[in-house]
Amino acid sequence: MRRPLVAGNWKMYETTAEARILISELLPGLSGIQGVDIVICPPFTSILPVASLLVGSGLGLGAQNMHWEASGAFTGEVSAPMLAEFCNYVIIGHSERRAYFGESDKLVNLKVKAALTHGMIPIMCIGETLDENEAGRTTEVVTRQVQSGLEGVNPASIVIAYEPVWAIGTGRAATAEGANQVLADLRQVISRIYDQDFAQEVRILYGGSVKASNAGEFFRQSDIDGALVGGASLKASEFVAIAKAAAG
Predict the structure, then answer these.
(1) Active site residue 163
(2) pTM to 2 decimals?
(3) What is the pLDDT of residues 166-208, one digit of tens each?
(4) Which range of residues forms the domain containing residue 47?
(5) What's the DSSP call for residue 132?
(6) Is residue 118 flagged as an active site residue?
(7) Which of 96, 128, 163, 238 is labelled catalytic?
(8) Catalytic residue of the set 94, 96, 118, 238
(9) Which SS3 state, helix, strand or coil, does residue 204 take?
């Protein structure tokens, strides 16, 4: 059985003071949840204070992005060794990084390799745009993204997050059955890259307007192993309810 994972992507929200308050609201509700890996992904500025608040909680800490080089003259960037001091996870290739900052499949691949090299678990995001979805190209697009993102990567502790771009922050979630079919197809792609055993072991999350009211429907699907949660992760009651739904 694959252990569910729920990750909260805070995006560019919450000052350090606000992050402390949100963690204080989250901890009581999350502390008693069993059988689910729960990860908090705050902005870079809040990683250190959040890390100190999560000590002993059993919750994971993730970054939202990183550079692929270990060090260098890259003003404004943050490297994997810098993050690995505090973080277990790192989100890579989120659709907003791809759309707004021009991140390519090749760049995603470099970052996945860097994360693994420095002991972090990459949450590699994939997903199609509305135009690609309406043109019937979903399988083609996500297959390309998975193959490129995992090129040259040995089977390892990776997490994949399927986020249809048209559902992120729009309130338009994919249907649970539709998302599950995409994930089932992805497992077949992964089995061709590696083998069937790894394809059945790798955790694949759904992301895109996940909230307390629809999380259970997604988590009941056979191939959906949790969620990458955006806006709802900024509301303690919503995120706790989503994590509880993942626990069953």
Answers:
(1) yes
(2) 0.96
(3) 877 777 768 999 999 999 999 999 999 999 999 999 999 999 8
(4) 5-247
(5) H
(6) no
(7) 163
(8) 94
(9) strand
